[in-house]
Specification:
With about 150 residues, this protein is mostly beta strands. It has one helix and twelve strands, in the order E-E-E-E-E-E-E-E-E-E-E-E-H. It has one helix at about 145-150, and strands at about 5-10, 20-25, 30-40, 40-45, 50-60, 65-70, 75-80, 90-100, 105-110, 115-120, 125-130, 130-135. Strands 1, 2, 3, 4, 5, 6, 7, 8, 11 and 12 form a ten-stranded mixed sheet that branches. The protein is globular, with a radius of gyration of 20 Å. About 15% of the residues are buried.
Length: about 150
């Protein structure tokens, strides 16, 4: 099965509007969210070679997910809704964190013991989208019941 369910949404980093995305409990490897980011309704420029993106996701059972997202060549953020993200039915809260890739620099400083190398990751900003909702619809029955039952074909 090669088809994917991709939900395209525009999410602002400043303007909070209600966004709800539906998904199905226990799905895996096929559900994605393709996010275009805006700042006060103006396209927020994201470059694959310059930025990194992560999703922060809280499930109804209060377990949390922090996953890396893919940035496309068009500057959109592709979020995979993993099996673990869809394990619990109910309302999940999410946002996407965007930051510049940190260019590591090595500074040389002198202390009482001699020269010390200090790694400097810079002071680049971090910005997050407004929170959006993933509504995980309950499956018809629990997958564990499938695994633990008899079947005679």
């Amino acid at each position: 099965m090669n088809s994917q369910a991709v939900k395209k949404v525009g999410i602002d980093v400043s303007d909070n509007k209600y966004i709800s995305i539906n998904a199905k409990q226990y799905d895996r490897n096929l559900r994605y969210i393709l996010i275009t980011c805006y700042n006060q309704k103006v396209l927020f420029p994201i470059k694959k070679s310059v930025h990194s993106a992560y999703i922060r996701y809280k499930k109804p059972d209060n377990h949390e997910v922090f996953n890396t997202c893919e940035i496309t060549e068009n500057g959109e953020i592709l979020v995979e809704l993993t099996e673990q993200m869809l394990a619990v039915a109910g309302i999940c809260y999410a946002d996407v964190v965007i930051h510049k890739n940190m260019a590591l620099e090595v500074d040389i400083a002198e202390n009482d013991d001699g020269l010390v190398e200090i790694i400097n990751v810079g002071n680049d900003g971090i910005i997050s989208t407004m929170t959006f909702i993933v509504n995980v619809q309950e499956a018809a029955f629990d997958n564990e019941q499938i695994e633990s039952s008899y079947e005679y074909n």
